[in-house]
Amino acid sequence: MKNSMLVVSLLAVCTAGASSGRTGAVENGASWEPSRIFGLGPVFSLSYSPDGTKLVIAGVAGTQLWDVASWSVERQFLGHQGAVHSASWSPDQSQIATASDDQTIKIWDASTGALLNTLVGHTDKVYAVAWSSDGATLASGSGDTKVRLWDAATGTPLAVLESHTSTVLSVSWSPMSDRISSGSMDRTVKIWRASCGALERTLVGHTTWVSSVAWSVGGLASGSFDGTVKTWSPSGSDDVASASLDQTLRQWNASTGAESARFRGHTNLIYDVSWSPDFTKLASASVDGSIIIWDAATATLLQIFDQRGDYAYGVAWSPGLANLKLAAAFLYGPIRIWNPETGELLRELLGHQSRVNAVAFSPDGRRLVSGSDDRTVKIWDIEKGTVLQTLTGHTWVVESVLWWGEGEQERVASCSLDSTIKIWDPNAGTLLNTLEGHTAEVLSIRLSPDETKLASGAFDGTVRIWNVSTGALLQTIPAHSAWIFSVAWSLDGTKIASSSTDHTVKIWEVASERLLQTLIGHVGYVYSTDWSPDESLVSSSEDVTIRLWSPRP
Q1: φ, ψ dihedrals at 48, nearest 5°
Q2: Which of 247, 409, 428, 499 could form a disulfide bond with 529, CB atoms 3.0-4.6 angstroms apart?
Q3: Among 183, 185, 166, 82, which Cα is nearest to 130's?
Q4: Residue 145: is its pLDDT beyond 60?
């Protein structure tokens, strides 16, 4: 390798596949498209630029271009409808090829990020792509067991190489000839002649999947799920890079073996995400025990509150920018409140007897409401750290809470796995109404911007809209055929987004109950979603990514 630093990507096993299908009808010719992804997520591929100054990282979070000197993200390549398993630079460093779960290979302009071509031909997920040394040909490997060769300039299919009996996980060109090597789940490495498409040799020795193959000037190396790296020539001399499992990007000195830097986001499913009051930042909560604050414009990690050994389930910002606070709910520990600018821990609230699932600030920012597995809703005085009210009535876990109104009209809402939504007077501690209609556990509630309606999402797959004052059920939208984890109103109150275990986010027009679009990209349960004023939508998932979807004019 030209660069003396060896980068090792540690990733998590991702078992869920992306949903397929067309996007829904779109109002006024506009639609939402992925515009930014926060964090690394599970990483499947690393590729240095030929001059060693750039690094391309590919995985569940799409494709990211990093500047090596500053270790910062320069650009994201968003366009695949699935995880990206492989990324490869053209020899002249002008283009990047990516291979994806969506069965395509895409070619991008490395300088501008523009999509130049999409290569279609594989009939299963594409796990590998590589450029020939002269830049004229691309090779790809797929779950359809085939290696395909493409004209890199035009995208024209040139040849199909068939001999593997299972998924092809890796392909690599010899730097000195027209040979191609491929590694497969069939436990073999095969060597091909690209000029004629002939199988030259089959290398047998690995005892399970061959996940990576790489040529040096003197030979070939292969890496396998059997825990071994094998060299197939005694003269091989290049460094060998490997991949393993923990969702951090690590930089190593190849000479000393010392770790010199580590870059991370969340390392486990992201259960909640929330915009700051001015919509310039995002806060996310993960069961890896961390709360992360992100710069919304650049996807840069600004602050991390790491409660290692605990699990974070909910996060909430205080209203307004004066005396800004951030609260988070945890499995084992107390509710914690931080100053999000300085990172100072301001308060810990102890009182629940079990996991806390959700928190929300009062409109004046001086009190907090929380919902817990102990079936109670608690009202807290933040300054004193004391419980003002304990609201009882739910017969099962409380999943989500809200607070709105002023003075005598202040109200708190809570939803539960007992299939109900309850409206409370937080000052008197009395139950005002119980909303019944869902036929399964209710996971999410959100208040409309005008504070007259409540939207709820449940395991019954429906989004229901209620009159806040009377408790009357106004609308029932059969939104998903799977569980709904989150609902969110657009800031103009005309649309609702719903996220689900079906890996999608759906956008609905409230008045007509019309599906405007289905957002496809996550490869795990989508736990949370939220809107910004510019109609952008953020979502967080089991796949360890946060995705920002922006409206396309």
Answers
A1: -75, 145
A2: 499
A3: 183
A4: yes
Query: Mind listing the pLDDT tens digit for each residue in 449-472?
Result: 999 999 999 999 999 999 999 999
Q: Which tokens is 207 given?
A: 């005892």
Give the largest Cα separation in the chain, rounded. Answer: 82
pLDDT in tens, 245-261: 344 444 443 334 333 34
Q: How far apart are CA 313 and CA 412, in angstroms?
A: 20
Taking the C-alpha atoms of residue 530 and residue 340, their distance in angstroms, rounded to an integer, is 19
Q: How many CB atoms lie within 10 A of CB 515?
A: 17
| Contact criterion met (CB below 8 Å) for 131 and 138 | yes
* Model confidence band, residue 231 (pLDDT cutoffs 50, 70, 90): low
Q: Residue 29 in 3-state DSSP?
A: helix
**Chain-centre distance of CA 61, in angstroms?**
6
Rounded Cα–Cα distance for residues 529 and 537 (Å): 7
- For residue 411, the surrounding DSSP H or E stretch is strand 411-416
What is the model's pLDDT at position 13?
28
Looking at residue 340, what DSSP letter applies?
A: T
Count of helix runs (H) and strand runs (E) in the chain: 0, 51
CB contact set of 53 (below 8 Å; sequence gap of 6+): 67, 68, 69
d(CA 350, CA 282): 26
Looking at the predicted structure, is the pLDDT value of residue 89 above 50? yes
Measured distance CA(12)–CA(59) in Å, rounded = 10
Per-residue pLDDT band at 30 (split at 50, 70, 90) = low
Position 6 pLDDT exceeds 70: no
Domains of the chain: 5-21+39-246 (2.130.10.10), 270-502 (2.130.10.10)
pLDDT of residue 324: 96
Which sign does the torsion angle of CA 492, 498, 499, 502 carry? Answer: negative
Find the radius of gyration of the CA atoms of the chain: 26
The 8 Å CB, 24+ separation contacts for 189-196 are: 189/213, 189/220, 189/222, 189/232, 190/163, 190/164, 191/220, 192/147, 192/161, 194/132, 194/137, 194/139, 194/149, 194/159
Q: Identify the CA nearest to 539 among candidates 78, 80, 36.
A: 36
Query: What amino acid is encoded at 283 in this protein?
Result: A
Query: 414 and 377 in contact (C-beta within 8 Å)?
Result: yes
Contact of 60 with 83, CB cutoff 8 Å: yes
DSSP state letters, 196-248 = TTEEEEEEE--SS-EEEEEE-SS-EEEEETTS-EEESSTT--S----EESSSE
Question: Where on the phi/psi map is residue 513: left (φ > 0), alpha (ψ -120 to 50), or beta?
Answer: left
Residue that is written with structure tokens 């809470």 in the block: 401
Q: What is the pLDDT of residue 230?
A: 64
- The residue whose two tokens read 């909910």 is 314
Taking the C-alpha atoms of residue 398 and residue 201, their distance in angstroms, rounded to an integer, is: 61
